[in-house]
Design goal:
Chains A, B: This is LacI family transcriptional regulator. The structure is a homodimer of 332-residue chains. The first copy, chain A, has 332 residues and is an alpha/beta fold. Chain A has 11 helices and 12 strands. In chain A, the strands form 3 sheets. The first copy, chain A, has a 6-stranded mixed sheet, sandwiched between helices. Chain A has a 4-stranded parallel sheet with strand order 2-1-3-4, with helices on both faces. The structure holds a DNA duplex (16 and 16 nucleotides).
DNA sequence: TTGAAAGCGCTACCAC
DNA sequence: GTGGTAGCGCTTTCAA
């Protein structure tokens, strides 16, 4: 049996409603009384029963995150950042690695205040209790819940323009040309559009396809690329994990960044700065994305703001010294 | 307002205690009544309120898992397997990626039935409510909670003996000789003890140190090793992630497994079978480990069994064809 | 400033 | 078989 407010009331010789108020730091309780009650609570090793609290207040102060099966660094970084934001707002976060539909159902039974559906691999077939605030990210857009997304196309587009402004004409894109992954398709599109706009040809030399999004895929692609006689002066690549591999290959070829080659990577996460060569990167900064997601969900929960059904966040370039102009003067 | 059993009672014209019984499939309700009530519940879109249920039954049917900051494949596989076991036992699992102490505190407030502390990076300073069943894994052994561990030393020990039985005399170990990671230290010790026991010398040629436990660490170490003139006939390595890199290197050197070199890896997870070359591996099969952990926690919760403070699980070798005798005849 | 009492949604017990 | 009711631990009126 754990200790309840009644126990505290008994010991401190007050009514249990007074204890409740004291515990909630209500101004209605005399400081002396409050102090004594708090002391007794501590002595007794009292742990508030959230279950009971939630039952009456109809607030769990908890959000659920339907967790994908993720291996990608950038995505697990996002989950971590979301957790930080949640804690900062005095909420808890409950993760579930079950199937999305199962996860949401469970969250609902626990009466969480809101749910984030994150990178669902399976379609959201069910319509859940319409009162449950749900926010999605990276889910196909034909779902009834607000979605916070990221402008992938513009990210790579901006990267091309940035390199071009530095004077680069020979720019290559290393990425995974998946048929099904919308995000990868968008990135590639951004590359083509930008190159076209500034009058640079896109041929097979300028697009290097990887076999996936892992570290080794980047490594293998970069190795193939770097063996060529006619090297690009600048490289754009599609993810953090790819970057790791690409840098290894660049190292093995004894190339200096940015003296021999400029590199800009997708995924604006802090880990970019901790690579063997810190990389300039483009994308929505992960902390901003996390903050936006959590604040949006909180708005949904508190009904303080109505949300647009789709919100696409715009990318930023974060300079970390891996790009210069092609004549080898550092530009960032 | 979500619908409650009272709403159901009103609509179906019975008392709400009958509804409660029907919903819990009690034999005390006439099948007809039950059927009708269930139908009404469905029509109304009723979702049981676990919060209320938990309050009275003092059971949340949920266990909490204090989630480490993991990057290692084998560990996230373990979490997934644990989740499967939990679901199989009609429980829910709540994950927290917060600091362990914070996580347990939160779980306690939510009155979870039990907690698994998994690979805690920070020491467990606090003693939590002594009534909360807690099970740990991979945590330093000077904690007051039962711990389920894995015999790392014996794993590698058995691997050496296995290779030796096949006739190998030139056996190398590729692993991360961390000063602080007890598990890595134990693996290395297992190698030394076994080699010593069968009268083989351990020199710098037989131990190849990696710089970490990532994929690339394995790749880099293997490349260095394979350049030697005097190749070992068999290789033992310390983790799944290392294996991935090692196989890439082996491939690049155009070596055949097991014809040119036998490989056995630590980490007994199914992914081993899905590598470019399926690898024979040693360790406690991850599903067995997960099952043991969940069952143990459930025992703790239901007090059906008392647990020893430390339980160390013994490894198995799972043969997947990557080992032969040195004269190139497949052995497994 | 404190206390009494209602009630959150549900289970479990006891009557009928 | 079914209904009435107490009570889980807490917050929140309302009275004193």
């Amino acid at each position: 049996m754990s200790v309840t407010i009644k126990d505290i009331a008994q010991v401190s010789g007050v009514s249990y409603s007074t204890v409740s108020k004291a515990l909630n730091d209500s101004p209605l309780v005399k400081p002396d009384t409050k102090k004594k009650i708090l002391q007794v609570a501590k002595d007794l090793g009292y742990t508030p029963n959230f279950v009971a609290k939630n039952l009456v207040s109809k607030k769990s102060n908890t959000i659920g995150l339907a967790w994908p099966t993720i291996e990608q660094t950038a995505l697990s970084t996002l989950v971590t950042e979301i957790n930080k934001q949640v804690v900062k707002n005095n909420y808890f976060m409950m993760l579930s690695i079950n199937d999305t539909n199962h996860a949401v159902e469970m969250f609902q039974k626990f009466r969480v205040d809101g749910v984030i559906i994150f990178e669902a691999e399976t379609p959201l077939v069910k319509t859940f209790d319409s009162n449950l605030p749900i926010l999605t990210h990276g889910v196909s857009s034909n779902n009834p819940y607000p979605i916070i997304d990221v402008n992938h196309r513009k990210s790579i587009y901006e990267a091309v323009l940035y390199l071009n402004r530095l004077g680069h004409k020979k720019i290559s894109y290393v990425g995974f040309p998946s048929q099904t992954d919308k995000r990868q398709i968008e990135k590639l599109k951004g590359f083509r559009v930008a190159m076209n706009e500034i009058g640079l040809k896109v041929d097979e030399d300028s697009i290097i396809s990887t076999d996936g999004l892992t570290w080794y895929d980047g490594y293998a692609a970069a190795k193939k690329l770097l063996q060529r006689s006619n090297l690009p002066t600048a490289l754009i690549n599609g993810s953090y994990d790819l970057s790791v591999g690409i840098l290894r290959a660049v190292n093995e070829f004894n190339l200096k960044v940015p003296e021999d080659i400029s590199i800009i990577s997708y995924d604006n996460i802090p880990q970019m700065a901790r690579l063997e060569t810190p990389l300039t990167s483009v994308g929505v900064p992960v902390n901003q994305l996390a903050e936006k997601m959590v604040n949006s969900l909180l708005d949904l929960i508190n009904k303080t703001n109505s949300l647009p059904l789709i919100e696409v966040m715009e990318p930023e370039i974060t300079k970390r010294g891996s790009c210069s102009n092609p004549t080898y003067k550092k530009a960032d």
